[in-house]
Amino acid sequence: MRLRLLVLPCALLAATSLSAQEWAATCHASSSYDVTLKPASILFDRPSPAPFHVEMQQGALRTDGNAVHLNAEQQDRLTVFERELRALAPRVRTVAQHGLDLAVQALQDETRTMSLGADTRAELDRRLAAHAATFRQRIAASNSTHDWQADVVDQYANQIAADVLPLLANDLGQQALDAAMRGDLQTASRLRDQATGLASGLRPRLEQRMQALQPQIAALCPAITRLADLQQGLHGSKGHPLNLLYVGQ
């Protein structure tokens, strides 16, 4: 089963993400659906199994294009589900924005331990600020988990890595060459090791720093559990339980 949260996870900077796996680990929540918050309705969709499309709108329910008859209690339950899901979305965006800020700060702190030149550091800060601004806009504008599929997240991360890591590696490599020409082979070796280990060394340290986001994620778990409870008893047009969200131990 693909792990999905029924709201808006986002990619974080430098290959660090607020991923569905983290939501599953923290809140024990998963879903096989993607979700899109439309102005007048909420759409859940997945490639299989049926129902493939579940759309709810002010207490009305359609699955795979067919209207579902609901009694008054079910309509009330569905209306509350819609309202509480929409209320949860901006809270998730806030956590995502905090995660982005944390990722940028963590990357800046990590690179401050390197002997980078002043020009390189200034250019690094400029590029990080540009990427962060782009991500903030994407987070604010996103209304669908389709915007944060794993391949999309990987593409964003690779773009950032391709932009930032060569800048650092070139600076450290040039310094290593200069040190070697001065006869300081120990410094040259240390700088070369830093340059060659950038990609493999930075990511685990950044991921460790991102653990500071866990309390904010955990604070959303009761709302997610509440959504799972509200969906109970709701079925599609062919009688299948909706099971939009699973919450387990």
From TrEMBL:
What span is annotated as the signal peptide, if there is one?
A: 1-20
At the top level of its lineage, which domain of life is listed?
Answer: Bacteria
Keywords associated with the record: Signal
* Family matches, as InterPro entries: DUF2884
Give the Pfam families listed for this entry.
DUF2884 (PF11101)
User: What is the protein name for this chain?
Assistant: DUF2884 domain-containing protein
Q: What species is this protein from?
A: Rhodanobacter caeni
